[in-house]
TrEMBL record, chain A:
Keywords: ATP-binding, Cytoplasm, Ligase, Nucleotide-binding, Purine biosynthesis. InterPro entries: PurS (IPR003850), PurS-like_sf (IPR036604). Part of the phosphoribosylformylglycinamidine synthase complex involved in the purines biosynthetic pathway. Catalyzes the ATP-dependent conversion of formylglycinamide ribonucleotide (FGAR) and glutamine to yield formylglycinamidine ribonucleotide (FGAM) and glutamate. The FGAM synthase complex is composed of three subunits. PurQ produces an ammonia molecule by converting glutamine to glutamate. PurL transfers the ammonia molecule to FGAR to form FGAM in an ATP-dependent manner. The lineage of its organism: Bacteria, Bacillati, Actinomycetota, Actinomycetes, Micrococcales. This is Phosphoribosylformylglycinamidine synthase subunit PurS. GO terms for biological process: 'de novo' IMP biosynthetic process. It catalyses: N(2)-formyl-N(1)-(5-phospho-beta-D-ribosyl)glycinamide + L-glutamine + ATP + H2O = 2-formamido-N(1)-(5-O-phospho-beta-D-ribosyl)acetamidine + L-glutamate + ADP + phosphate + H(+). It comes from Brevibacterium sediminis.
From TrEMBL, chain B:
Pathway: Purine metabolism; IMP biosynthesis via de novo pathway; 5-amino-1-(5-phospho-D-ribosyl)imidazole from N(2)-formyl-N(1)-(5-phospho-D-ribosyl)glycinamide: step 1/2. Gene3D superfamilies: 3.40.50.880. Part of the FGAM synthase complex composed of 1 PurL, 1 PurQ and 2 PurS subunits. Keywords: ATP-binding, Cytoplasm, Glutamine amidotransferase, Hydrolase, Ligase, Nucleotide-binding, Purine biosynthesis. GO terms for biological process: 'de novo' IMP biosynthetic process. It comes from Brevibacterium sediminis. The gene is purQ. Pfam families: GATase_5. This is Phosphoribosylformylglycinamidine synthase subunit PurQ. SMART domains: GATase_5.
Length: 85, 245
C-alpha cells in the first residue's frame, strides 16, 4: 500500500507564534545553535493500490483545498512516501 | 392583540415573524446564547445542525462561537466544508444576512465567504476580556442599529483571533468600507490594522472575533459600560429583514 506525503508550512511573511514558543523552549533547554523556528504540518494519505499520477493530482488538489489555507500557508511538497511499510 | 411571553426563553412565535437559524457544529459552544439573543431581539431562533443540508426556511443565519470539530486542522477548516455550509454559502451569495462570531468568523474565512484568515494570537495566549470596538460601518445587515463611529463594549475570548490578509486585501477592505469593527484602545490578538470584524462586498455577511451574543442582557454582559452593547447586531438584522418583508 502506498502513501502520499503532503507538507504544509506557514507563509514566510505570516507570524508563526507556535514557532516562536518552540524557539523559546529550545533556548531554555540549552539548544543555543538555532535561530528562528517555524512549525508546519505533514499529512500522510494512504492510497489503495499504487500512487499513480492521477492519485498525486488528487492529493495536490486536496492539499490546496483542505489541507492548507492559501491565505496563510504554502504547500511545500506533495510526494509519494519512499519508505515501504 | 397577541400576548407576548414574559419569559424570553419560552417557545413563542416572535412578533417580527423573522426566523434566524443558529448552526450547531460538533464542538460549538455559544449556540444557546446566540439563540437567546435572537429571541430577545424579537425573532424566532431555529436550531440548524451541521449535517443538515437545508436551512429550514430561515431568513438569516448565525454561525456561533466555539471549537467546531475540535479546531482540528485549522480553526473552522472542517466546518467550512460541512454539509450545512453548502446551503449557507449559496444563501449568503444570494443576499441572506449571515453573521459569524469568533469560530463562526473563522468558518466564514475558511469557506471563503470573507477574505483573510485568523491565526494564533501574537502573544500566544488565550485571552478573555471586555473589549471596546469602534463601529466603522453602520450600513451592514448586522450593524444598521449602531451609529457610525460608535464605541461598543462586548466580551472577547479567543486563542486564534489574529486577523491577517495581504496588504492588497487589507487596502481593499479599508477603501471599500468593509472594515466593520476595529479594536479600540488595545489590540488583543495582533490583528493587522486592529481589525476586529469585516463584511463582504454586499454587506450581508459579517464576521467578527468578539461576542455580541454575550452582551444582550443587563447583569450578564460586561460589568462596565452598558453591558448590553451587543443587542444592536440582532435588532439590526431583524429590522433589515422586516423592512425587506
Amino acid at each position: 500500500m502506498a502513501r502520499v506525503v503532503v507538507e504544509v508550512m506557514p507563509k514566510p511573511e505570516i507570524l508563526d507564534p507556535q514557532g516562536k514558543a518552540i524557539s523559546g523552549g529550545l533556548t531554555r533547554l540549552g539548544f543555543t545553535g538555532f535561530g528562528e523556528v517555524r512549525q508546519g504540518k505533514r499529512f500522510e494519505l494512504e492510497v489503495d493500490g499504487e500512487a499513480t499520477e492521477e492519485v498525486l493530482a488528487q492529493a495536490r488538489e486536496a492539499a490546496e483545498k483542505l489541507l492548507s489555507n492559501p491565505v496563510i500557508e504554502n504547500v511545500v511538497a506533495v510526494r509519494v512516501a519512499e519508505d515501504a511499510s | 392583540m397577541t400576548a407576548v411571553a414574559a419569559d424570553p426563553t419560552a417557545e413563542a412565535t416572535a412578533e417580527s415573524g423573522v426566523s434566524v437559524g443558529v448552526v450547531t457544529f460538533p464542538g460549538t459552544l455559544d449556540d444557546r446564547d446566540a439563540a437567546r439573543a435572537v429571541r430577545l431581539a424579537g425573532a424566532n431562533p431555529v436550531n440548524l445542525w451541521h449535517a443538515d443540508s437545508t436551512l429550514s426556511g430561515v431568513d438569516a443565519v448565525i454561525l456561533p462561537g466555539g471549537f467546531s470539530y475540535g479546531d482540528y486542522l485549522r480553526c473552522g477548516a472542517i466546518a467550512g466544508f460541512a454539509p450545512i455550509m453548502e446551503s449557507v454559502v449559496a444563501a449568503a451569495n444570494a443576499g441572506m444576512p449571515v453573521l459569524g462570531i469568533c469560530n463562526g468568523f473563522q468558518i466564514l474565512c475558511e469557506s471563503r465567504l470573507l477574505p483573510g484568515a485568523l491565526i494564533r494570537n501574537d502573544h500566544q495566549h488565550f485571552i478573555c476580556r471586555d473589549q471596546d470596538l469602534v463601529v466603522e460601518n453602520a450600513n451592514t445587515a448586522w450593524t444598521s442599529d449602531y451609529e457610525q463611529g460608535q464605541t461598543i463594549r462586548i466580551p472577547l475570548k479567543n486563542g486564534e483571533g489574529g486577523f491577517v490578509a495581504t496588504d492588497e486585501v487589507l487596502d481593499e477592505l479599508e477603501s471599500t468600507g468593509r472594515v466593520v469593527f476595529r479594536y479600540q484602545g488595545f489590540n488583543p490578538n495582533g490583528s493587522l490594522r486592529d481589525i476586529a470584524g469585516i463584511t463582504n462586498e454586499a454587506g450581508n455577511v459579517v464576521g467578527l472575533m468578539p461576542h455580541p451574543e454575550h452582551a444582550v442582557e443587563t447583569g450578564f454582559g460586561p460589568e462596565s459600560g452598558g453591558g448590553i452593547d451587543g443587542q444592536g447586531f440582532f435588532s439590526s438584522a431583524v429590522r433589515t429583514l422586516v423592512a425587506k418583508g
